[in-house]
């Protein structure tokens, strides 16, 4: 068994491994289930319950993925014990995926919690192994193991609470989960690799966008199977393509590894991706719902269906601007105003008759304008610890 001594943050040519790519594909099943649940809830006029269930289920998906990603960046040995532990985590992800429909339909988070706890507790032996193999970072590794174990107990106890109390307990437990990395690493960070982390996040962004394309395509196919004329779907389909293509272009228009300069900056960047990933998944649900509206298969009001698309697109634009673009272009007034203005204009499209097409055109125009108005700047470094 290879000693888990920690990988160098300066390792050359560090890229995602086949095991990490398989891990991501397992997670996309859970992402697809959450997006489908949101789509159907809004279509059946259960918007509040659908959004609440989506936000809660997606946290479980995102946080488990994120913790594996940062651990693997620092301690991936790719030996047999490591692979077996990752397979257990994948199994937990599939349990989460199986439980998402029940969580969103009837607020029963028992199966989702089971899968989540399986995933999180499978990480504890990994951190203990790292503590044994990396004396320099032993304290951080042991704090991770202890913090993860304690918080999982909280998630199990939450299942026994009444529904209202369980809802209030959710943000408390989320805060506890988010505090564990700072608690563990604030004195000395583990040796994660900035280039590797940026690549992993980029790959997962592509996967989530791909799920949005799949959801939209399936919705169009079902509408055509029900003899809906293609011309009735044309503007929605074209607008949807503009949206997804522009979201991809916007996210990858600037590098991000050079923004991971401190623990505080890295946590802010990593945590902010919850909004990026969740909004990207919700866009797929919004486009699919727009197809349902055009084909008469949705019971949602037109404004509600439009908002199901425009709000997540606006959230995506603002979050990518804050995390990826703004640090590269500090001081550029035009660039500073462009994407917040685009997000605001996209929200206004909620009240138009063609929200999907107009949102796609606005987003594409913002991407083009952003590329023309802000070239050659360097990121502002965050030297705070």
What's the quick description here?
By secondary structure, the chain is mainly α.
Largest sheet at a glance? none
Quote the average pLDDT: 89
Question: How many distinct beta strands?
Answer: 0
**Uncertain spans:** 373-378, 380-385
Backbone structural class: mainly alpha
SS strand fraction: under 5%
How large is the count of helical segments? 12
- Termini separation comes to 35 Å
Features:
77% helix, 385 residues
SSE diagram, text form:
Blueprint: H1 18-43, H2 47-75, H3 80-106, H4 110-133, H5 138-158, H6 163-185, H7 194-225, H8 230-251, H9 263-295, H10 302-325, H11 333-348, H12 355-373
Helix pairs in contact: 1-2, 1-3, 1-7, 1-9, 2-3, 2-4, 2-9, 3-4, 4-5, 5-6, 6-9, 7-8, 7-9, 8-9, 8-10, 8-12, 9-10, 10-11, 10-12, 11-12
Could you characterize what this model shows?
- The protein is mostly helical and 385 residues long.
- Helix content is 77%, strand content 0%.
- Helix 7 (194-225) packs antiparallel against helix 8 (230-251).
- The protein is globular, with a radius of gyration of 21 Å.
- Residues 373-378 and 380-385 have low confidence and may be disordered.
């Amino acid at each position: 068994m290879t000693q888990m001594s920690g990988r160098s943050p300066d390792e050359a040519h560090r890229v995602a491994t086949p095991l990490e790519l398989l891990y991501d594909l397992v997670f996309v099943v859970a992402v697809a289930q959450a997006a489908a649940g949101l789509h159907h809830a809004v279509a059946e006029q259960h918007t509040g319950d659908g959004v609440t269930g989506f936000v809660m289920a997606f946290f479980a998906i995102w946080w488990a993925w994120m913790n594996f990603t940062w651990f693997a960046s620092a301690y991936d040995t790719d030996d047999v014990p490591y692979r077996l532990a990752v397979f257990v985590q994948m199994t937990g992800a599939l349990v989460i995926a199986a439980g998402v429909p029940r969580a969103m339909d009837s607020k029963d988070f028992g199966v989702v919690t089971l899968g989540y706890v399986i995933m999180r507790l499978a990480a504890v032996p990994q951190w203990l192994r790292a503590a044994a193999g990396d004396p320099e970072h032993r304290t951080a590794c042991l704090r991770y193991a202890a913090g993860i174990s304690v918080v999982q107990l909280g998630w199990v106890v939450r299942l026994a609470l009444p529904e209202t109390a369980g809802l209030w307990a959710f943000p408390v437990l989320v805060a506890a989960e988010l505090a564990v990395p700072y608690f563990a690493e604030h004195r000395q960070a583990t040796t994660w690799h900035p280039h590797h982390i940026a690549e992993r996040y980029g790959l997962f962004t592509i996967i989530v966008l791909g799920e949005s394309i799949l959801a939209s395509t399936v919705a169009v196919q079902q509408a055509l199977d029900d003899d809906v004329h293609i011309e009735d779907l044309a503007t929605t389909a074209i607008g949807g393509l503009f949206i997804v293509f522009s979201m991809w272009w916007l996210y990858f228009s600037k590098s991000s590894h050079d923004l991971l300069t401190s623990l505080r900056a890295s946590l802010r960047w990593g945590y902010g991706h919850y909004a990026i990933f969740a909004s990207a998944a919700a866009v797929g649900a919004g486009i699919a719902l727009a197809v349902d509206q055009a084909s008469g298969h949705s019971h949602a009001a037109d404004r509600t269906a439009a908002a199901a698309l425009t709000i997540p697109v606006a959230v995506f634009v603002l979050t990518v601007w804050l995390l990826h673009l703004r640090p590269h272009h500090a001081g550029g007034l035009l660039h500073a105003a462009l994407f917040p203005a685009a997000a605001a204009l996209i929200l206004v499209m909620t009240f138009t008759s063609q929200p999907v097409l107009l949102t796609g055109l606005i987003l594409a125009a913002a991407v083009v304008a952003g590329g023309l108005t802000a070239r050659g700047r360097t990121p502002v470094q965050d030297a705070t610890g």
